[in-house]
User: Fold these one by one.
Assistant:
Number 1:
Amino acid sequence: MKTLKIWMLSLVLTGLASFSFAQGGGKAEEVKIKTSAVCDMCKATIEKGLAYEKGVNKATLDVDSKVLTVSFNGQKTSVEKLRKAVNELGYDADDTKATPRAYDRLDGCCKKDAVH
Amino acid sequence: MLSYRRRAFWAMTLLGLLLSFAGQAQNLAGRVVDAANATPLIGASVIWLGTNQATSTDANGHFTLAPAPAGQTAILVTYIGYKPDTVQVQGRSHLVVQLKSVTSIKEVTITGKQDRYSAMTPTNSQVITAKDLTKSACCNLAESFETNASVEVSTSDAVSGAKQIQMLGLDGAYTLMTTDNVPALRGLATPYRLNYLSGTYIEAIDIIKGTGSVLNGYESISGQVNVRLKDPEKSDRVFVNLYGNSLAKWDANVNTSFTLTPKLSTVLMLHTDQLSNRVDNNHDGFLDLPLGKHYNVFNKWKYNTGKQWVAELGIQALRETRIGGQVGYRSGMPQQEGSFYGTESETDRVSGFSKTSYTFKNKPYQSIGLILSGARHDFDSQYGTRPYKGFQNTGLANLIFQSAFGNTAHTYKTGLSYQYEDYQENLAGQRLKRQERVPGAFFEYIYQNSTNLTLVGGVRADHHNLYGWVYTPRFNVKYDFNPNSIVRVAAGKGFRVANPIAENVASLISNRAFFFQNDLQPEKAWNLGGSFTQYFEVGERKGAFITDYYYTTFQNQIVPDMYSSPYQVAFTNLNGRSFSKSFQAEVQYELTSMLDIKAAYKYFDVRTTYNGELLRRPFIPNHRAFLNLGFATPFDKWRADLTAQWFGKRLVPSMDHDMNHHETSIMTRTVSPYAVFNGQITRAFKRWEVYLGGENLLDYKQKNPIVGADNPFGQEFDASMVWAPVIGRVIYAGLRFTLK
């Protein structure tokens, strides 16, 4: 009887777990955002900043193409919010410009007009 | 469609090959300029990273570098007075490198993860970064050193809870403390100075072993601790930190910064800590740490034209009151036999500094700077029946001119300084007064070849109104066998006028008579030493091995002898030898991408002549070990730290008094080794961080830290014989809020 109860419980738990997993995975969307990042330090800043945004699963910046690839949960966030997050880190995102204050505070080497 | 793609692919590949071919065959040409005003930097060094193949820039800042010998893709560009930069060449054949100025007056801003042992400085330097600072409990400077092996923090006595730093086995008074490279918290502020700066005011801390540079005066003997305060230009808009611990001590900190115009910015920093809970966990009838109230304000301004002028201004005011002693003691009670023993202190301090620098147009290596600072320190205290008052007015002016001879391989800094000190002390009716007026001049020459050798030679001459001319020579040499193996040698002299009472406040918490030899002379010492740093990579993970040895020998020292007799402390000039030999070996290694490890071993041999006999300094263990494990998940969402410190056996004075045989010898006994563990866990969110930690996790305590605690008005009473923690395990928690 006891064994059966444990079995039942684990079955329910497994079911719940896979359900929530399916839900989390099902809503995953991906977007590519063109940024004004110029160096590896920018990459670290942007990837770290986005990791703290709600709904973001993964964010990867390719420094050469300046393209940021974000995989996110569309129910928790939106592309607009992601662009805004990039702006607030001091970088342009597609057509939206960096927040001036955040841009001013970037290290010299991370500014888009820095000569490299 | 497919064929188009394929064709495009081949075209790209071919292009890529051509480009990389072109990149390899061609010389790399470029230009090095000042980031602020785009003027060319003449004589800057450009080197293929990890090689000896280097060149330097011509009169227009241009350089040409032969192709990299082994396919290196990055160059390192360095220039005296500028922040070095590593630039990825990425197949380009021409590039422009902007270097940012870091002249002694302007600042380097370093955030996040960086090498804790700098590869660039000519001195043996280490940095405690902003991230390291969040690894230990909050909120004063003493706790900032907990995850660092080079600086020891010890409790000075069992009543005041004051913490002192030690470097090279020598008392903290021999370490020069500076804030933003301006000498600070000197003289009478020394005993409690680690309390006077909150950890939340600090951007980073530089620790320099050895005598260092002549620019900041003659005082440093064992080393320098430079506290870099938050930069108004880079500070967060709002930062709040709240902290509470299991003793019911709490701290609150608020920083706020404003950019008023594009050129003018300010940061205002507030700190308070309070303890009103009486704690006596070792049941000796005495509070384990005093009740206290502390209010501290720091306001810093920066005016940066982005061109030639930069000016900074800082003002600090603080008030701290403490009440300690027996649990039953209340403020103002009469202190006599049959009543309670208590200690009270009140500190009122205001201080300020300003720094102005002008960089010459088209000569970025040439600048002139003026540093002014002043402080008024008022300390009023009572230890049982013994009152002590100390008052100090300080003023300092330092004018520094920096330029180059011919090209920037030969640069120099020279200038004039003037120091004014007014000390007034009153110890139970015994008055001590001293006024110092010290004009001085200094010159420092720096030679740096473009690859691997830096020589710094400096000398200063000061005329002290009480002690005549003081000459202070100092030398530093740095030689890179290759970019990963660096050796440094340092030699220099230090000079300071001791403040025997302030530096031995702990001894006031006893019934010892204070006895001063007539004609106490200034302290003078030579410090010689060197270090070897090896950066390495094992399995693509970076590490560093650092070992150093320093020998300090005193020509004169004020020796506080509290060991020859239990009834007095006698301050005398050194009569004989006094030295410290210090050896340290440290390894830092990234075990996995999430786990960093730091391990250190230290050996100290510190001896002083007491009463004609060269004896080991009590309380200083010969062997110490240090281990720090730092764990962080990607993006630092979770961080955990564990620090273990082990102290070998040591000699402590034996207070079992026996009149028959202690004519000359100190009676000592050996106490057993012990270890202290501290740990902390932090969880970070977008704007919030919460942390939970513990100090002295194994709850190790010294038994009976107060000698004669049952009769504090009796002759045997002494609270300064402390060699282990007085407070047991403390659990704390806190949160931080940041608005960037």
Note: The mean pLDDT of chain B is 88.
Number 2:
Amino acid sequence: MIEFRDLVVSYPGARQNAVDGVSFVGARGQLTALAGPNGSGKSSIVKALLRRADITRGSASIDGRDVRSLSYAELARNVAVVPQREEAAFPIQVREYVFLGRYPHLGLWRAPSREDDLAVDQALSQAGVEDLADRDTDALSGGEWQRVRIARALAQKSPALVLDEPTTFLDVAHEMGIFELMSSLAHSGLAVLLVSHQLNLVARFADTIVLLDRGKVATTGSPTEVMRADTLESIYGWPVVITRDPAVGAPALVPLRRPVRL
Amino acid sequence: MRRFQGWYWLLLIVALLAVGMLAVARGAVSVSLAGVIDALRGRGDPTAIAIVRDLRLPRVVLGALVGAGLGASGAALQGALRNPLAEPYLLGVSGGAAVGAVIAFSLSVSSDAMITLAAFAGGIAAVFVALAVARVGGRSARADVRTLLIAGVIVGAFANAAIMVALARAEPNTVRGALWWMMGSAADATWRRVAWLAASILVAGGALVYWAREIDVLSLGDDTAASLGVDAERAGRRAFLLAALLAAATVSAAGLIGFVGLVVPHIARRMGLRAHRPLIMAAGLIGATLVVAADLAARTVAAPTELPLGAITALLGVPFFLVQLRRTS
């Protein structure tokens, strides 16, 4: 379980706190979505969880243990993260890449054991990328690369998984594929925290949505509770209507047009 | 991508030994290979023994160590900085070491050990200045590795300016000595210098090999490294310092020998190596072979005139690098 309690993150020199008293829980077996406009503090929350940003006040914890009390390796054994950006400069074989997910268990010198091999095989098959194992990372399409990155995180075998905008730049089919994968992973017992801009997909897949606005939780609850036109209009500053997805009945957001007069 | 085979190690070692033997045998006075082996064992012609044992062998070993240090340093640095164009001299090390050496020259220090020491101190001082600059320039107290790289370039540029100011007022002899040193040369090899360089490389290179898996993770980016349990800032700084230490040791022993640290890691990667533990070790072997070969060329191509070693490596390195650039784009 991932838990934030009254979390405050402020960067030196900034006038406002990037995260300003956020509390919520990402429970095991659930897909929790963290949504909100650009600059609402989503990435800072992920950074605080990873200890990449200093926690000014409050706490971020995993299964009841404050992240600041864990070593970096312990933290990585408890939560796997697929960051938004990854600038690998040199291509590497997919299997070797996924094997790097075992680093928190192997450390600097331990030789990989049967258990590590198994974890990597399992991660490759869960993410549906077994067939890519012998390819190089620079020969993958955008969708394949995202799945391979998720496989690397799964190889960590941690009970919590955080994904920061995993479907940016992906087409509809690949995007749906990733959302289906995240949903299955959550329902297999992981605590999955998803940072996403895709409100409509989040509304169909997430069990809980946490909607942020300027560093604070604006509203949280089930998709039906969160996806309300008045709330979303005031947060995003854009006229919207909420309809029902004709196929599955999930709430869907339709932004209205506001033509620019030149 | 090619996969690295186990027997490539044998190939790398044999290549180094073969080039090394050739470099010991060839020169102003050529000795036959059998003569070299006899001389190494202390048999045969006393002149040949003196040439092989006291002149050529230390020079060849020094060249090999310089190449190994630069290759390993470059391999670690490119991985940690995620930049295929990074090279040890970009850290400000070379400029700092040159400032140290030029100061020693202009104070008319003639002791070999003192000049080496001054260069080493200058190189290390430059790295610490770069670290301090990066900390001021960075947004937080934790400096990003790329800020470090830029800080290194700035410190290097400042060092070059300082050298020119110092040399503008110097005696012609000082200028000549400093210039020769800045062009890089293994000519002044002594066993003491070899021992000092070997010790530095063993310590700093060994530490890089020890922490190599951390560099594997670091090469995926700071956020990913952090998610895999590596303190990215600390690991980056450590790789930076160790790579700088290696470079400073080689510069203090043989002056500036460019392009080795840049080109050699690419050769190792072309052989199919990706993980940094074998990559750093292979880059050491390849760098050693390359510098010994370049030094042999420097001594023999225009004999009896000796060419500056740094110019030879640059002449070899530039076209190689252009080919590499064409292949990747």
Note: Chain A touches chain B through 40 residues (CB under 8 Å).
Number 3:
Amino acid sequence: MNILVCVKRVPAPGARINITSDGQQVDTAFLGFTVSPHEECAVEQAVQLIEKHGGDVTVLTLGPAEAEEQLRTAVSVGATKAVLVPIDTADWDPQKTAQAISKVISELETKNGKYDLVLFGNESADSCGYQVGVRAALKLERPIVNGAKGLEIENGVAVVRRESDAGVEIYKLKMPACVGIKEGINLPRYPTMKGRLASKKVAIDRSEATGDTGGLKLITLRRPPERASNTVILGNGPEAAPAVVDLLEELGVFK
Amino acid sequence: MTVLAVVEHDRGTMTSASLGVLTAARNLARQMNTKFEALTIGANADRLSETVANFGATTVHQAHNSMLTDFGPEAWGESIAQVVRKISPSVVIGTGTERGHEIIAQAAARLDLPAAMNCSEFDKDFNGSQPLKVVRTRWGGSLLEEAQLDAPIKLLTLANHVVEPQEELASTTPTISTTEVQLDESVRQSFVQDRVERVAGVTLATSPVVVSGGRGVGSAEAFAPLEELASLLNGVVGCSRAVTNNGWRNHTDQVGQTGTRIAPDIYIACGISGAIQHWVGAMASKNILAINTDAQANIVTKAGYAVIGDLHKVVPAISAEIRRRQNK
């Protein structure tokens, strides 16, 4: 089977997110970058599926030229092909992104045949838009279910498991289908030496990004007001235990 | 001009997130000096009209189709789109939940309109005709985005827990307006096909006490003292993303932006530095006790209480002290 996974390059912040002085972006001067967590799991899920059923995993990203790094990371853990859709800025709005991605996917399918599955992350870690996958799926005229915490192929049908307050919901989608993956569906593997070598050698295909600007426009980013810190230090080392248990008693969690 | 609230429900039971949406929609309609209406999807939700009326809606739109007996993101999104085309509201507000984001995204895609998810504030001067300025949360709430939604119909979801539900009866009984929505056979397959109900019990999301470990714990085995402390306090064990990434614990135990958001009476964070990813999942805790060797760790500076020291020594000492007092 052939699977395409859409991933996004996002900053990997530590304890504090800083913003550039123009308020338009996260200041990444001192940050590394990573594949957005849900999508990291989408790549792993795709690789597990082709290990079981055979086939290819193509990984695609719309992002700056540097996002090639994230494509190579995906190849190092088992993706077989990589497509970069380069843009001049860090981010496009969700409508424009979905339009561009679905166009590129259609072009790739004209050349190589339909992908049985197109996987997205449930939402990106940085912009949290919750909509690119849904919009792209509609343009590709195939079904999509988000929030997947399980994805298996049974008799040519994609079986999606999703968590709810009450338990687990099961969806069954005829392929070709799209699925929005959530972290926790699997534990992404670390690259092997062989994978690292493959990631250095893989040819990165490039496709042109085209799309119309959508109606959601960023004005500025800001940080929420910080809570004043006045931490009560209960003590140092094991000697602090009685003070801790006093606190637990006071809060009523231990009687 | 109308503000339309989309009610989220599960086979006829309204979710708590919907109550905040009804309240926010009513407040926004009042500010715009316009009508507040609500939409329920599926005949099994018709009975929710009474609850909706308690929040002051003047009209309740009921979307009907024989397929609408359970949740299906595409069918629900299409239902919203058809009602929106029929009544042309100024603003449509959905819940900031997994289902809410999904159905608003579906509706937006079908209507080819923009959508802003997880909004926490709206422009106080908005009257319906101009673009709508919103504040929406990013990075799970550790970053805010001021954005402008420029469209004839504004679609958005309300960040969960930001608006306190407030009932307010309308002066008249709401009008019921039924719409028979047309659903294509193709959306039938994306309905819930089957369910596995959860076994009742204390979960990470609901436990009043959570004892959590991070990278500092060091191994899967080293969680044993945390398990013991959690058990003495009738709580559960949680962990950070570093722990699940190392394979020490299952993702179901993960507290954080991409794990579970918790709000226990006390959160005991052991050997956790407190990166954004983790903090946004834990910040709603009523009390936080950090146990960490680093007095400058992010979690220590943000916690209400802290013990500076090695969790491998401190945690067993706390358990021993609890047992000593129990045996008195």
Note: Chain B touches chain A through 100 residues (CB under 8 Å).
Number 4:
Amino acid sequence: MTAHQTIEAKQVAITGAEMVVRALLDQGVDTLFGYPGGAVLPIYDALFAEPRLQHVLVRHEQGATHAAEGYARSTGKPGVVLVTSGPGATNAVTGIVDALMDSIPLVVITGQVATHLIGTDAFQECDTVGITRSITKQNYLVKDVADLPRIMHEAFHIAVSGRPGPVVIDIPKDVQFGKGLYQGPGEVQHAHPYAPRTKGDAGRIAEAVAMIAQAKRPILYTGGGVINAGPRAAALLREFAAITGAPVTSTLMGLGAFPASNPQWLGMVGMHGSFESNNAMHDCDVMVNIGARFDDRVTGRLDAFSPGSRKIHIDIDPSSIGKNIRTDIGIVGDAGSVLEDLLAAWKSRNLATDKAAMADWWKQIDAWRARDGFRYTQDSKLIKPQHAVQRLYELTRGKDVYVTTEVGQHQMWAAQFFHFEEPNRWMTSGGLGTMGYGLPAAVGVQMAHRDALVIDIAGDASVQMTMQEMSTAVQYDLPIKIFILNNEWMGMVRQWQQLLHGERYSHSYSASLPDFVKMAEAYGCVGIRAEHPDELDAKIVQMIETKRPVIFDCRVTKDENCFPMIPSGKAHNEMILAADNRDLGSVIDDAGKRLV
Amino acid sequence: MPDPQPASVYDLSHDEEAESLATFAVLVDNEPGVLHRLVGLFAARGYNIESLTVAETDRNAHTSRVTIVTRGTPNVLNQIHAQLEKMVSTRHVQDVTRDPNGLERELALVKVRGTGAERVEALRVADIFRARVIDTTHESFVFELTGAPSKVDKFCDLMRPLGLVEVSRTGVLSIQRGVDGF
């Protein structure tokens, strides 16, 4: 008898469903989000007697994917989703795309009809791998139970390595019932030798530090890549900013990697970013992009984007470098690893930026800051949405806070007026812009951080897209706080209709909103409403102190626009401020109106 | 009325640089759906496919070689290269066109119908191109021709006035000169 046979003889064959559970445990999974159905019942059966895996029953599969995203973003671990075939898989599609666009590691397990039924238009059959091929990093249809252990472990490896993203594993029901030998993560032989480059090229790192040291007006433009690279990357970013003295801005996805209280922080960049960050991006002479992707919300008009600067781009995804913007030095690598090498190269060469030039640069930045681009006037009778977010921030300061958002005006106000000191505290749908992301994401965050204060800063329209997940929050005693900036409009749509479509407000007003307080009560949670500025603080404190899920209906002014704003088709230094908000129709030209 | 200047980021993405043809050889893990993923990548990002050939080339390693001819500006071609390399199933990507050691060949089957002088001329042209006759009737030939794509194009152009009926081409195959493998 050979050694190999001895091992096999000792092992007991288990079912595919049991293999899924074993693999999840071996991968360190403690929580998964899902919804049972015919084609995943064997896996649910295997979960029934498994106390080490906490399954969160959502109310719609989209909620499961966003909850898993929230879990992943707030912990740095992959999020796991389990749904059935057909509608279970198609309902999960939005969240899978969302995770792809924002580089969130997800492993999504879908049930499939039995292999002999595939292609027969069986009940709840759909071509899941076909549908999800273009929206995943990788996907699998498991046709043989012998392949299942390898595919499970490979999926986790692919989801978290390189640029993270979603992986789908479609498992037919007969494969779940089929028996085979399980193999652990160290025992399987991966079919794909997938090992993306994480270490930056030393020559380019040397060129980069030399370029930064010669800069007179440098800027660090950071993105979600720094968050994905882990807390160490955020710590190294702080050190690199300190040693160079350069101002720091970030994309929407990168907020929290650099502390908002640091004097070198300029605020968010982009369409609704700060006046000082956009002007600094435009006028800088060396731009260091760390883990951002020159998204169109950031660059605005491409031919006028930071015209006088040389650009260094650090990204783990080689296809991001040079995609939208030509870069002078492209460095493929993990943000943390490259920052570490940049720091080492800087120190070993005893480099320093030009003090006098930096003083002039900061003087200019302070002049932009003095314009106070986020200025608004709080009303004595009505609550301004900016004021509401600002009060929420002030009253939760110092607490263990995680913030999620939906998509729209409230999202931008949250990014502008809520400030973060640490990474992994801010969960938002940046790339896909998915209304309905925030509430289920809050469920996922709270599952991972049971004692934290988890707030979904929401809009009245977005929140209704996944409102059913309040039921999930109640079932699992998740005291999430849904803070709705209720202006009765799809606010960002209304703003664009005002600015670009001659104030023709086509189908953007919610003529019949639910009573959110009664709705909260119907779900078995707490409803709070604030209508007057004088009661706002007390009501927010009441919300914070409530140890149950809360829906907070914050009635805000209906026609507030989100400023400052880079109008479509304009450059960063053509940003308009709230004070200029008189005749916006004439600011944006016809070509700009065609943009989204 | 035309816009005085392109103000949109999308307008500007149509850069002015000239497009050119490029051939990429891609070694991929041979698994279900891999071709769909690759072709889907081209469709989703608006790239053209001029020709595509694919077959398993190493049965033990389960790898297939895909040769894909596409068109684009230098920027787009760089992006296609990067996107191909990004696929999890991709093992290696080679830009054959921009590689001085790149060799490209294509096989074509060409049916020509004619009698008399035209038939004789068709046979003479075929001889010049070293095309083989693999089927004949009293009024037709099927030629088999191998060569660079431009040679196949030229052959078809010459056959057109002589009674070209039908062309079937494999698409481009490629390999590198010299001792090194993929």
Note: Chain A touches chain B at residues 129-130, 133-134, 137-139, 141, 158, 191-194, 296, 299-303, 317-319, 321-323, 568-570, 589-592, 594-595 (CB under 8 Å).
